[in-house]
Amino acid sequence: xxxxxxxxxxxxxxxxxxxxxxxxxxxxxxxxxxxxxxxxxxxxxxxxxxxxxxxxxxxxxxxxxxxxxxxxxxxxxxxxxxxxxxxxxxxxxxxxxxxxxxxxxxxxxxxxxxxxxxxxxxxxxxxxxxxxxxxxxxxxxxxxxxxxxxxx
Length: 152
Prior knowledge:
There is one protein chain. This protein has helices spanning 8-11, 13-32, 37-51, 54-66, 71-75, 88-101, 110-117, 122-145. By secondary structure, the chain is mostly helical. The longest helix is centred in the C-terminal third of the chain and has 24 residues, at 122-145.
């Protein structure tokens, strides 16, 4: 039985356009704060893994690869804590990403927050928290709309 899902981004295009404009502004602020696009894409991929968002995983993996991210680092992202392939800034970013995504299960402890702050400026913390919030929002849009992916 085929079920029709409303693509809420298409149904309410001005709302979605506002989100995409906010995402572009966020990327610009993150760059101004010294965060690389690949760091942001690692956040996007990790959050999308946790949320099991098919569409966003496909999209952000492709973008990360285009930006020069390595297939190896993307492959081990689910176990990033065990891999010595990520910088201190990337580790801090991934810690924030997971805490924002799993906010009902755990928050950043004071110890984790202190560790994150050792590697990030105020602007970087803000940009990374907003980035995790933003990709969680886009995940929910795609998951609930059941956006498909096409083979490439």
